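Blackboard transcription, Thursday session:
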Amino acid sequence: MADQRFSGIRINGLYKIFGSHPEDYIDAVKTGLSKTDLLNKHAHVLGLRDINLDIPSGCIQVIMGLSGSGKSTLIRHINRLIDPTAGEVLVDGVDIVKMNEQALREFRRQQTAMVFQKFALLPHRTVLENTVYGLEIQGMPRSKSNDIAMRWLERVGLKGFEQRYPNQLSGGMQQRVGLARALANDAPVLLMDEAYSALDPLIRVDMQSVLLDIQKEIKKTIVFITHDLDEALRLGDQIAILRDGEIIQQGSSQDIVLRPQDEYIANFVREVNRGRVVQVDAVMTPFQLGHKVSGPTIASGTSLEEAAQLLCRWPDGEVAVTGANGERLGLINLRRVVEAMVCFQNQPLNGLAGATPDSGAQAVS
Amino acid sequence: MDWFDKFPHMDDESLRTLKKTIDEGFRSFTRAYGDGIEDLFTPLKVFLSFTERLMIQTPWPIVIAVILLLVWFASRSHKVVIGALVALLAIGYFDMWEDTMRTASMIFVCTILSVALGIPIGIWMARSDRVQRIINPVLDIMQTMPSFVYLIPVVMLLGIGKVPGLIAVVIYSIPPMIRLTNLGIRLVDKDVLEAADAFGSSSFQKLRNVQLPLALPTIMTGVNQTIMMALAMVVVAAMIGVQGLGQPVLKAISNQYFTLGIFNGLAIVGLAIVFDRATQAYGKRIQKHMENQHG
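(Written on the board underneath:)
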């Protein structure tokens, strides 16, 4: 694959201040001027403060936050639709902040593709003509780009709709066109700005499956913006939570649900169906030799919900959790699984926090 | 309290000198550069004479067939085509065919000129707020200044004839073209423009793929308005020697020939309705894809 050597995205010390003279206040903001003070005393809006993010190649990074948290501003820094006030954005090792206009245009054509909340399709073009848009901009001959576009349209389930106009399609179908247009570009970075927020819940889940399914093949580096925690937990390999322009926690979905950094995140997490997010690894006890094990085994990474279904048939015994090579990692029983699913306090879970494979929860203050 | 009852004005002597100086300045400018400027417009004159001859010398059934064909392609509507046919036959039957062809050729050239000048100016205006701030008042002046007033310098420079008439008509009819091009481009959805940027469009690619196509319905309204305003100028243009339906109207005014005036006036109206329905129907047709919104 062409993007195998793609080294991911790295954002270092990114600041964005909106206003007429942002450079005058950047030092004050760096040394601690608050967002409210900046707005009230200087009439400038702090968009982003000290964002540091490391997105490895092939990973889905979800950036979650409520409206006004700066998430859409952040994603627009990755293809520099918005210029930062300070900081660097390294995509595949190159700082795009330093690029001139022409280099930036070339970068956008080759390295990134974007899906938009409001679809942003060209209303005067058919579905097929919309899908080839990115390739047309690159200067690819139509005969070649049509083939690629047709392949992606078929992949997102729009075969037979090529000659329709966007306004003849439902919202979900329009966003499939948006997705096909982005995928046709074959860029290593896929930016999705609240791509599914305008869709109704069933279609949204459907589209999440489409994305996860396609991602298994294409292994792009995806940055996905959402305000929906369920969506974030379902899609994200990594999740960063943004509030008032600052990242207040980043880590895996397990980290967010099991170890919310503060009250704000804890409030979010309370509404989540833990059975689907938390994995057995988080609640198992370490395996000890000589332990009596009965019945089946459960694979590491299984969700509590699935584990509970299996364990219903072994309500009294201890069951082994096994790793990828069949080695026994720990033990689990129905009681602990159910306890973890319905229990909102962290105490019983924290005991084994260190045992989870991806417990690199790092908090950014 | 003399100044209170009577507006204190510039004294008569200085006022007279001021007017005289400006007039003389312009007159000497005309003498020095008039010929050169006239040469500049020669291609326009050739083009205008060519279209006029083409439309008059071609046998009338062919001209009608071509016009109806164009109307059909623009509107795809039987009603509009039949209406155009009736209007053209009536015009010919009342012996106004030649004058109508002269006027139509004039309007045709004027529209081409307005589109060719108006769209680039409109685009330029849409791209820069400063340009918009400068051009807008100029357009206001062009639209509100009585046309007789700017006929004076045009006639002084270029004399009486087709070309000065054409220039006067273009000055009067180009503002809607410029304004609506500007407006159409400025109204293009910001989200779609952002998408074009995100995919790395150059500014020319954005113009060609996004801005102009999405502004096209508004631009077509501009073309329609330009044609209507040009037709409204036909009689004024006739005063400086433009032949066509305007001249019989002038003759009718000075001699009080009521019927002659009405006939030629109605011919102008007929021409206007044909042009208007055809261009409007075309404008609607290119917006087809905007319709049948999906809930």
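Lecturer's comment: The radius of gyration of chain B is 23 Å.
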